[in-house]
Amino acid sequence: MTSRIYLFAFLVLYFLIVFVLRSWLLWKRTGINPFTFDDTDDAHGYNGRLFKFIVALEVLVVAIYAFGGEMYEYLLPFWYLEYWQLQIAGWILLVISLIWTFTAQLQMADAWRIGIDTKNDTELVATGLFSKSRNPFFSGIILADIGLFLVAPNAFTLLISVLSIVVIQTQVRLEEAYLTTAHGDSYLSYKQKVARWL
């Protein structure tokens, strides 16, 4: 039970560091709200709503895993994947993901956004992790999803992983279209040199 509580605590810490703290620091320094998703009915707004749903579902599922006792059976656990070796591999991925995503955010500096910011100009970041991957932050999120599934293998963590990957794939393509418009040849040149993922 203690290890399950650790997972919930890690998830809360992950969200606080990666989303809340980084966004607050950016807003405090620049006055810009990094949350750009709105309630529009276009693909960007729809993706934003899916992101929020996935985060809420993830918190609920991990809370049930940690504190739900017998309720966990309703998440349809894959008992045949519940091996300590897979759990350790999952924890390693979760820790790597936290370090990786936070590093990507630091390297983005004031260009960090959650979604597409069409109101404020941002610089094209092509150094650090971004010289190896055009989407290191999203790559880190995918690592976290896989890690979560390995630590707590059940139908809902699998659903979270699949939904997250689909939404991220969509968001990446929306952002690529915007960056092509915003940065023109600079982004097209960068796109040819650096892979979308790794």
Total strand count, please? Answer: 0
How confident overall, as mean pLDDT?
93
- CATH level 1 class label: Mainly Alpha
Unreliable residue stretches: none
Quick recap:
The protein has 198 residues and is mostly helical. 67% of the residues lie in helices and 0% in strands.
If you had to describe this structure to a student in words, what would you say it looks like?
Helix content is 67%, strand content 0%. With 198 residues, it is an all-alpha fold. It has a single domain, classed as Four Helix Bundle (Hemerythrin (Met), subunit A), CATH 1.20.120.1630. The N and C termini lie far apart (36 Å).
Keywords:
198 residues, mainly alpha, Four Helix Bundle (Hemerythrin (Met), subunit A), elongated
List the helices and strands and how they pair.
Layout: H1 2-30, H2 43-67, H3 84-108, H4 136-151, H5 155-183, H6 185-193
